[in-house]
């Protein structure tokens, strides 16, 4: 089978499409014929060799956590799923023609494989950081870097919970943020004053790692009310860096419920063939994404 792999840490050029042995589903696992794989910032952070305790790497290594596809192998002890079922979920080395999933759910009616592949890690992250930052219904949450996959999920989940959201993004994504129910403003010079004009900020999330931790602490008045998933230096300012996943099964169940109720939709901004994984990483690292990027197998 074809698989994206890297034998050394580095830039996108270390990614190579290789011929590899097919993985097989062990106990409690399923294997899918991958139709699409989600491209997440954690993928290129791991590729670069950033210290991420939740994702230890032994080289050479595959890439990717999220995927959607067709079940073709069911491991011992697995019930409720069989070959031919359409599922999405999380596993390992999902930038490949076949991948083993450790957590999965049936794809909601009406989703394409490309759309489904963009949800698992994104929704888990969104649910986790909303919980960790402690924002409650009736309060206001500021989301810095709000137009990407996690930001799109945070805005919609928070609004569904009765939380007011303020989102920052580039000028081209202002209408997109408003379509998700956010009060929107641009980043750049004077952005904190623009946020203050939109209302009080009770909690804040840094999703872009663009060096705004001090400003977010200033807006909330308390470093404990700020969470970052993108700035490894955040703890130096008393802000928690959230990088360890919570319950993916619970996240998938909530994602299915929200999607089925029409309360969550994350668009796919761009799809890439498996051979263009390096280009997908370059674009992901550049930011300014509206929704998700996925690889199509």
TrEMBL record:
<dbReference type="Pfam" id="PF08240">
    <property type="entry name" value="ADH_N"/>
</dbReference>
<dbReference type="InterPro" id="IPR036291">
    <property type="entry name" value="NAD(P)-bd_dom_sf"/>
</dbReference>
<protein>
    <submittedName>
        <fullName>NADP-dependent oxidoreductase</fullName>
    </submittedName>
</protein>
<feature type="domain" description="Enoyl reductase (ER)">
    <location>
        <begin position="10"/>
        <end position="295"/>
    </location>
</feature>
<dbReference type="InterPro" id="IPR002364">
    <property type="entry name" value="Quin_OxRdtase/zeta-crystal_CS"/>
</dbReference>
<dbReference type="InterPro" id="IPR020843">
    <property type="entry name" value="ER"/>
</dbReference>
<dbReference type="InterPro" id="IPR051603">
    <property type="entry name" value="Zinc-ADH_QOR/CCCR"/>
</dbReference>
<dbReference type="InterPro" id="IPR011032">
    <property type="entry name" value="GroES-like_sf"/>
</dbReference>
<keyword id="KW-0694">RNA-binding</keyword>
<dbReference type="Pfam" id="PF13602">
    <property type="entry name" value="ADH_zinc_N_2"/>
</dbReference>
<comment type="subunit">
    <text>Homotetramer.</text>
</comment>
<keyword id="KW-0963">Cytoplasm</keyword>
<keyword id="KW-0521">NADP</keyword>
<dbReference type="InterPro" id="IPR013154">
    <property type="entry name" value="ADH-like_N"/>
</dbReference>
């Amino acid at each position: 089978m074809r698989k994206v792999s890297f034998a050394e840490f580095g830039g996108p050029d270390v990614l190579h499409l290789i011929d590899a042995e097919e993985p097989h589903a062990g106990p409690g696992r399923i294997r899918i014929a991958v139709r699409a794989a989600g491209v997440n910032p954690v993928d290129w952070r791991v590729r670069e060799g950033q210290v991420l305790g939740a994702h230890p790497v032994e080289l050479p290594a595959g890439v990717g956590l999220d995927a959607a596809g067709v079940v073709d192998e069911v491991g011992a002890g697995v019930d409720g799923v069989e070959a031919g079922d359409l599922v999405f979920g999380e596993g390992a080395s999902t930038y490949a023609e076949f991948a083993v999933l450790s957590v999965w759910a049936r794809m909601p009616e009406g989703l394409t494989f490309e759309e489904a592949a963009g949800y698992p890690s994104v929704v888990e992250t969104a649910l986790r950081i909303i919980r960790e930052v402690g924002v409650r219904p009736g309060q206001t949450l500021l989301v810095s870097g709000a137009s990407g996959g996690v930001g799109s999920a945070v805005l919609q989940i928070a609004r569904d919970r009765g939380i007011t959201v303020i989102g920052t993004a580039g000028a081209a994504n202002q209408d997109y943020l408003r379509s998700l129910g956010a009060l929107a403003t641009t980043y750049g010079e004077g952005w904190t004053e623009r946020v203050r004009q939109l209302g009080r900020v009770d909690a804040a999330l840094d999703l872009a790692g663009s060096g705004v931790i001090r400003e977010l602490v200033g807006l909330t008045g308390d470093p404990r009310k700020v969470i970052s998933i993108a700035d490894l230096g955040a703890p130096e300012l008393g802000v928690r860096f959230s990088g360890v996943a919570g319950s993916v099964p619970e996240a998938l169940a909530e994602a299915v419920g929200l999607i089925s109720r029409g309360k969550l939709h994350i668009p796919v901004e761009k799809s890439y063939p498996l051979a263009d994984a390096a280009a997908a990483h370059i674009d992901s690292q550049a930011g300014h994404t509206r929704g998700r990027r996925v690889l199509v197998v």
